[in-house]
Structures are given as structure tokens and as C-alpha cells.
Design goal:
The complex is a heterodimer of chains A (143) and B (174).
Chain A: H1 2-13, H2 19-31, H3 37-50, H4 60-95, H5 100-142
Chain B: H1 2-19, H2 22-30, E1 38-42, H3 44-50, H4 58-67, E2 70-78, H5 84-97, E3 101-106, E4 111-120, E5 123-133, E6 137-146, H6 148-154
Antiparallel strand pairs in B: 1-2, 2-6, 3-4, 4-5, 5-6
Classes of the chains: A mainly alpha (143), B alpha+beta (174).
Chain lengths: 143, 174
């Protein structure tokens, strides 16, 4: 056995061993712990092999496809937003008021009209409430 | 993933910003060549200019306070429209389709009007008014941060009877 290990070691240091032969050497030094540098070296290799990465392994292919999806999504969103902005910009320029004085007068007129209508609606609402209350009073009096 | 979420949020905000005033924009498209209607759009940039104005009278103060948080306004108005009642009904339907919540509707012999709002977390982001009379039809849209109390106060200091003042726009840019 010793001669077999010595032969394998000679091949190993010459870089000529197969994977099976290297496994054989590692297994030998685990089973026969020695404090020689060669024994410590092979046990060290085994320990290194047991180290587990803290992060899960991801296939390069899947990462690539996700990044492709992100690029495709970005382009699609960009096209949609761009189209909408261009379309909206075209519309805005049609009727947009560019004179501040005119814009101020329009804003005053429109808000004034809205204000009058809001107040009118509130008045109608109050009158309806009064009418409803009057109906209640009449009904109570009739009973 | 974070990038996609950020993009989705940006897209959502872009859609939201562009959706403002969409009902009136549809009418702009529909009546773009019709000279019976006055069309006007005031941008957020213009409203930001107004906030730099110094108010003289109390009425102006009320007005500037009401518009201080507005981001835009779109108006379509016609005072001599043949099918005004049909347009009024269609207008209400468009407002409902666009997801507005009805605030109030007044049916009057002279003029009907319908107010609707878009509200989120107690803040009104858009106020729209559709009005239809015997011959008149109007769709008015305000967007930004809207305080109805401040808007209702404006009328106290102003002598506003209607949108006739907009007619002079015909002689101007449009």
C-alpha cells in the first residue's frame, strides 16, 4: 500500500494523476492521519472542498435571461412613455395659452364660473334640506 | 428587480400625470377644427408664474390662494351649440368612464351642471365641471391640489355670470 501511495505521490507532484487517483490519495491521508507536510496538505484540500458558499449558486444562463428581460422591459416602457409624451406634447401646444395676462384672465373667469356654480349647487342643496325638513314637520303635525 | 419596480413606479406616475385633464383633451380632439368652441389649456408653468404675483385687493388674495396649488386647467366652451343637451349627457358619461366621483348635479331650467372629482387620501387632485344649457356647453377641468372651500369663496368678490369672457379668445390665438 505504501509503495502504491508513493507511486501515486510521484505521479501527483509530476501532475500526471487522474481524478480517481487524487481521490485515492486524499482518502488515504484521511484514514491514516500523519503529521507530515504531505498528509497535512491532502487533509487541507479535503477541508477546503467542504467549504460552502454563503450565497446560493445561480446558473449564469438564468442571470443572463433576467437581465435580458429587464432590458426588454425598460425599452418597452421607454417606448410607451415616449409615445405618450410626444402625443401629449402635440396636443398641449394646440390650445395652450402662452400669454400670462390672458392666462390669468381665463383662470379668473373659469374659477369664477366654477365658484358661482358650486355656490348655486350648495344653495339648492340647502333649499332641498329645508323642504325636506318642512315636509317632516307637516307630516308630524298631521299625525 | 429594484430597477423594474422603479421603472413601474415611474410609468405609473407618468400615466397619472398624463391622465389629468384627459376628459377635456378628448373634447379638444373631437372639436379641434370646430370654431363654435373656445378651447384653452393653462400649464403648470403658467400657474407657477401666478404664484409670484402680489395680491392687491382681498378678492385677488382669495383668488391667488385658490390657485396656489393648481397644476393646470383645461377648458372647452361653446355658447351657441345646437346639440348642447346631448353633449351634456355624453359629457357626464365620459366623466364617469374616466373614474371620477360625482360631487353634485344641479338640473335647472336655465343650465344644468355636474361636478365630479378625483380624490385620493382626502386630497382632491382633479375637479371637473360639465355644464349644459339651452345652447351652451362647457367642460372645465382643474388639476393639482384643489380646495373646494377656497374655490367657492372666489365668487364673493367677483361679478361672474358666465364664461362669456372667454369669447374674446376667438379673436386672439385660437
Amino acid at each position: 500500500m505504501e509503495s502504491r501511495i508513493e507511486q501515486l505521490l510521484t505521479k501527483y507532484w509530476a501532475g500526471e494523476t487522474s481524478v480517481q487517483e487524487e481521490e485515492e490519495l486524499k482518502a488515504f491521508y484521511i484514514e491514516n492521519p500523519s503529521l507530515t507536510p504531505t498528509g497535512m496538505y491532502f487533509r487541507g484540500l479535503n477541508k477546503e472542498a467542504e467549504v460552502v458558499s454563503p450565497k446560493a449558486f445561480k446558473k449564469p444562463g438564468s442571470r443572463f435571461s433576467r437581465s435580458r428581460f429587464a432590458v426588454a422591459a425598460t425599452i418597452a416602457i421607454g417606448i410607451m412613455v415616449g409615445t405618450m409624451i410626444l402625443r401629449d406634447t402635440g396636443k398641449k401646444h394646440d390650445f395652450e395659452i402662452t400669454d400670462p395676462q390672458q392666462a390669468y384672465e381665463i383662470a379668473q373667469t373659469v374659477l369664477g364660473k366654477m365658484s358661482v356654480s358650486l355656490n348655486e349647487a350648495q344653495t339648492h342643496s340647502t333649499q332641498l334640506k329645508k323642504l325636506s325638513k318642512a315636509e317632516e314637520i307637516i307630516k308630524e303635525a298631521q299625525l | 428587480m429594484k430597477k423594474i419596480a422603479t421603472l413601474a413606479l415611474a410609468l405609473f406616475l407618468a400615466f397619472g400625470a398624463m391622465a389629468q385633464g384627459e376628459v377635456v383633451s378628448k373634447y379638444f380632439d373631437q372639436f379641434s377644427d370646430n370654431e363654435d368652441f373656445v378651447k384653452a389649456s393653462i400649464s403648470s408653468k403658467m400657474f407657477s408664474l401666478f404664484t409670484e404675483l402680489e395680491a392687491g385687493s382681498e378678492e385677488e388674495q382669495e383668488f391667488l390662494k385658490a390657485i396656489s396649488k393648481l397644476k393646470g386647467m383645461k377648458v372647452l366652451y361653446g355658447d351657441s351649440v345646437a346639440n348642447s343637451s346631448k353633449l351634456y349627457k355624453e359629457g357626464i358619461s365620459e366623466v364617469q368612464k374616466a373614474g371620477f366621483e360625482e360631487l353634485m348635479t344641479v338640473l335647472d331650467a336655465e343650465e344644468n351642471f355636474h361636478f365630479a372629482i378625483k380624490e385620493k387620501s382626502g386630497v382632491i387632485s382633479e375637479l371637473i365641471m360639465v355644464s349644459g344649457g339651452k345652447k351652451g356647453f362647457a367642460v372645465l377641468s382643474l388639476y393639482g391640489e384643489i380646495d373646494l372651500k377656497n374655490i367657492s369663496k372666489i365668487a364673493r368678490g367677483m361679478n361672474v355670470q358666465g364664461l362669456n369672457g372667454l369669447d374674446k379668445l376667438d379673436e386672439g390665438e385660437n
